[in-house]
Amino acid sequence: MTDQQTGFDKNFRQYLINNGEKDVNGNAINEYSHINPDAYDPSVFQLSWFNADDLLQNGTVSYYGYDHLGNKYSGLNDYLNNPENRYIAPYNPIYMAAYIQDEVVYENLNLRFGIRVDRFDANQQVLKDEFSLYPVKTVGELTNDPNLGEISVPGNIGSEYKVYVDDPYNPTKVVGYRHGDDWYMADGSETNDPGVIAQQSNTGTIAPYTNFSSRTEENEIGLTNEAFEDYEPQINVMPRVAVRFPISDQAMFFASYDVLTQRPQARNIATVDAYYYLPARSTSVVNNPNLRPEKTISYEVGFQQALTENMAIKTYAYYREMRDMIQIVPRRYAYPIDYTTFGNIDFGTVKAFVLSYKLRPSIEGVNKNATIEANYTLQFANATGSNSATQASLINAGQPNLRTLQPTSQDVRHNFVLSMDYRFADGDYYNGPTLGNGQKVFSNAGINFVANATSGRPYTGQANVTQAVAFGVQQRSTIDGSVNGNRYPWRFNVNMKIDKSFALNPGKPEASQNHLQIYLWVQNVFNTRNIVSLYRYTGLPDDDGWLTSAEGQQAMLSTTSMQSYQDLYSVKMQNPGNYTRPRLVRLGAVISF
Questions:
Q1: Is residue 382 part of a domain?
Q2: Do 302 and 399 belong together in one domain?
Q3: Residue 283's domain is classified under what CATH number?
Q4: Considering 411, 432, 449, which residue would you say is the last residue of a domain?
Q5: pLDDT digits (tens, 9 = 90+) for 98-108
Q6: So what's the pLDDT on residue 400?
Q7: Which candidate, 300, 306, 290, 209, places its Cα nearest to that of 252?
Q8: Which of 578, 510, 580 is nearest to 543 (CA)?
Q9: How far apart are CA 47 and CA 99, in angstroms?
């Protein structure tokens, strides 16, 4: 046995010794016997023989709010001091909010003021320093340092800056400094390449000035509670102001200012074991429990005009600024290993202009049956990332975060929506055709059309041909042009619904009547094949360009049957998910009572 004996080996071995089991040579099993677990019936084994490290170190389990055996745990973190159980507290964020609003009306001016205050506490441990799992000495701790002696610190380097040396255990000189994720050379000049600092160490790797005197001591002590601190609660003050000013009896001006925050919805739960096993595990992506809420600041101004008693137009423009958006970030030259996490580094803007028209039926007017709503939106949505993993390919390629504004994947430049409803009322208000006996055949019946035309969403083109539908093939694509520099085709869709309601107990008052509604609902009336996904090399939904490329032709020569390969590959490319759903007809009934 060694010091690395697992809990399972210890407990299983003790079970065999207590039961007088013998090894393959007929000798009684002892603490040093060779044991083959596969030779025993699975019913022999017990889950309780494993300790937490047995299951955690290989990534067999992951948990919080439970122990490694699946028992619910509601206590505090006791991970680093309890190797047997490795307790991880449940995720219990604390959220509080307060809101106050007042409205002031002065002559024709309507003002509404409000303020909301949110307090968000993730209530979990976070790393004190995302660039080091171990405490790193600061400039303020270098006074009379026995290893470095008297050093000259540049004037722009603060006392809280982290110190990097030529040797992490036996340093003789300072080679750089760091403040947050800003790096500085020994002379105080800022650098965008920490590799220059790393190359000045004896090993050519980054060397923070730690309290360890040797690699052995570092491995023995490892990660401690000193590397963590409690999440700092975030307090967000969100003012809201809205103003409405009637210009006349038929026209109104309105404007608003609004601040909103959103708590992190994902990527913000990271347990202690993610850092404890970081140097040993193959994964290098770690969630960040220290994420802050995302913020949106919105400005809106508009004008509304009544054209007639039942007809109006409305136009408004808005500008939204998104801050502290979550994006994947690299932690290169972190110690003791590089990794990737998430940070509040993204930002974006949305600029839009909206024009709408509304027509309502009127009892007295000419129009007694039709309802029409038409909207047009012109929008420009740009951000440094469309989602939290937008920059993943750049990070994997060794590139830094390129935080430049690009159209987001949700950017729809033009959007037209037209809704038309033609409906006949019942009773005295019925104005539809009747039969010879006076029967009102279309009472409580109507037809509705909703048409939508949308310009194409952006996508990133691909410069090299790849087997886009293949699995298990090592290949890497390259960007053609700029990120989200291409556009999908326009999408057009019309839905139709015809319905008629019948009173099930017509003799009763309207308030107590039950109704049966029969409807015919047709989605995608014209069976339009709208493209929702395509192959980035060709820009087509049914051809990725591989079969006709020189690379594809060469690959087919090595197959057993070129025709079979071509036919099967072509079938695979014809993915129905690349198009919107075809025409769908539904006939149904709804009973209300």
A1: yes
A2: yes
A3: 2.40.170.20
A4: 411
A5: 999 999 998 88
A6: 62
A7: 306
A8: 578
A9: 50
- The DSSP line for 371-395 is EEEEEEEEEEEEES-SSTTTTHHHH
- Is residue 558 one of the residues assigned to a domain? no
Considering only CA atoms, which of 108, 72, 114 is closest in space to residue 89? 72
**Closest listed residue to residue 387, CA positions, set 497, 496, 278, 483:** 483
What's at 262, amino acid-wise?
A: Q
Q: Is 104 helix (H, G, I), strand (E, B) or coil?
A: strand
Q: What is the mean pLDDT of residues 436-457?
A: 90
Q: Give yes or no: residues 160 and 190 share one domain.
A: yes
**Whether the Cβ atoms of residue 519 and residue 590 lie closer than 8 Å to each other:** yes
**DSSP letters spanning 202-270:** SSSS--B--S-SSHHHHHHH-S-GGGEEEPPPEEEEEEEEEEEEEEETTEEEEEEEEEEEE---SS---
Give the ranges where 311-458 is alpha helix by DSSP (H).
Answer: 392-396
Residue 540 — pLDDT band, cuts 50, 70, 90?
very high
Same-domain check for residues 288 and 407:
yes
Q: In this structure, what is the dihedral angle of CA atoms 358, 361, 367, 370, given to the nearest 10 degrees? A: 70
Residue 1's pLDDT is 42
Count the neighbouring beta carbons within 10 Å of the beta carbon of residue 24.
10
Contacts of residue 567, Cβ cutoff 8 Å, sequence gap at least 6 = none
Q: Where are the alpha helices (DSSP H) in 494-561?
A: 550-557
276 and 403 both lie in a single domain? yes
Tell me if 276 is assigned to some domain.
Answer: yes
Residues 309, 336, single domain; the answer is yes
Q: CB under 8 Å to 479, separation ≥6 — which residues? A: 460, 461, 462, 463
Residue 490 one-letter amino acid: W
Q: Which helix (H) or strand (E) holds 274?
A: helix 272-276
Same structural domain for residues 268 and 322? yes
Instruction: Tell me: do 367 and 279 sit in the same domain.
Output: yes
* Alpha-carbon span 136 to 162, nearest angstrom: 6
- Structure confidence by residue, pLDDT tens digits, 386-427: 787 777 766 666 666 667 888 998 899 999 999 999 999 888
Residue 69 lies in a domain: no
Domain with 319, as residue range(s), is 93-124+232-411
Asked if residue 330 has a cis previous peptide bond (ω within 30° of 0), the answer is no
- Residue 57 buriedness (CB in 10 A; 0-12 / 13-18 / 19+): middle
Q: Which two tokens stand for residue 69?
A: 């055996």
Q: How many residues does the chain have?
A: 593
Residue 465, pLDDT above cutoff 90: yes
Cβ-proximal residues to 222 (8 Å cutoff; 6+ apart), any chain: 276
Beta strands in 309-402 (DSSP E): 311-331, 339-359, 370-383
Q: How many independent structural domains does the chain possess?
A: 3
Cα–Cα distance between 290 and 270 in angstroms, integer?
9
Are 286 and 140 found together in one domain?
no
* pLDDT band per the 50, 70, 90 thresholds, residue 137: very high
Residue 3 has pLDDT above 60, yes or no: no
Q: Residue 2 — very low, low, confident or very high, per pLDDT cuts 50/70/90?
A: very low
Asked which of 221, 249, 282 is the last residue of a domain, the reply is 221
Mean pLDDT of 129-156: 89
pLDDT at 127 over 90: yes
